[in-house]
Design goal:
About 35% of the residues are buried. By secondary structure, this protein is α+β, with helices and mostly antiparallel strands. The termini are close together. The longest helix is centred in the middle third of the chain and has 27 residues, at about 105-130. The strands form two sheets. Strands 1, 2, 3, 4 and 5 form a five-stranded antiparallel sheet that branches. It has helices at about 5-10, 65-70, 95-105, 105-130, 135-145, 160-165, 170-180, 195-205, 210-220; strands at about 15, 25, 35-50, 50-60, 80-95, 155, 185-190, 190-195. It contains nine helices and eight strands.
């Protein structure tokens, strides 16, 4: 973000601490705030009363939670935005961000480019969930989480991983055991440590990297 664009937002930003599974934006309710993660990250999830919750997107310090509905002119979204890893986020009222976007074409441009990255991530997630086996899907998910933290340790339970991947907990447990057997990760209660990121990327192959490359092209390279 350009310094002059950040200056438009800065007076309206409020640093807030987040908690695991905290709802940031509830489905089908007015979006009152957006969030810029500093530490930790959030999930975009779709939820069905019968099949449960499935993650469709992941947002960390590279992005903003709530960009899609607000920038595309809607006041709400059918998706659930919740904290997947606790940390700190800058909250901003929707009206303040909308006013800044109306004032600055360059701010609007960078946020719309980020929306394209989110769409790319969602389409890649659909491909991975449809075509790849659970241990590969888990490896990709861990890589995406790893991108959004400092260090190699991830705070995640088997139960939460199962919810986010839309599979049974037993399936996630077997997938974790497989990745441990390959010596790619180390799992202990409530945590997983990435031991060999390069090998994880090789395992996932084309299932990982497309939205990351799009982010680099549209935003980092702008």
């Amino acid at each position: 973000m350009a310094p002059n664009d950040f200056a438009l937002l800065q007076p309206h930003l409020k640093l807030t601490e987040t908690e695991l599974r905290q709802t940031l934006i509830a489905p089908n309710e007015p979006v009152k705030q957006l969030f810029f993660p500093e530490t930790g990250y959030a999930s975009i999830a779709t939820q069905d009363s019968e099949s449960g919750r499935v993650e469709t997107g992941l947002i960390g310090r590279e992005g903003v939670v709530g960009a899609i509905p607000v920038l595309l002119g809607s006041d709400r979204t059918p998706h659930h935005f919740l904290v997947q890893s606790a940390g700190e986020m800058f909250a901003i009222n929707t009206g303040a961000l909308s006013a800044a976007v109306d004032e600055s074409p360059s701010l609007r441009k960078v946020l719309l480019r980020y929306i394209q990255v989110q769409f790319t991530q969602a389409s890649q997630t659909a491909f991975v969930n449809a075509k790849l086996k659970i241990e590969t899907r888990l490896a990709r998910w861990l890589l995406m989480c790893h991108d959004r933290v400092d260090g190699d340790e991830l705070v995640v339970t088997h139960e939460f991983a199962a919810l986010m991947l839309g599979v049974q907990r037993s399936g996630v447990t077997l997938a974790i055991q497989a990745l441990e057997g390959y010596r790619l990760i180390k799992a202990k209660r409530g945590r997983m440590t990435v031991l060999d990121r390069e090998a994880l990327e090789k395992l996932v192959d084309s299932g990982y990297g497309l939205p990351e490359a799009e982010y680099a092209r549209l935003i980092e390279g702008a």
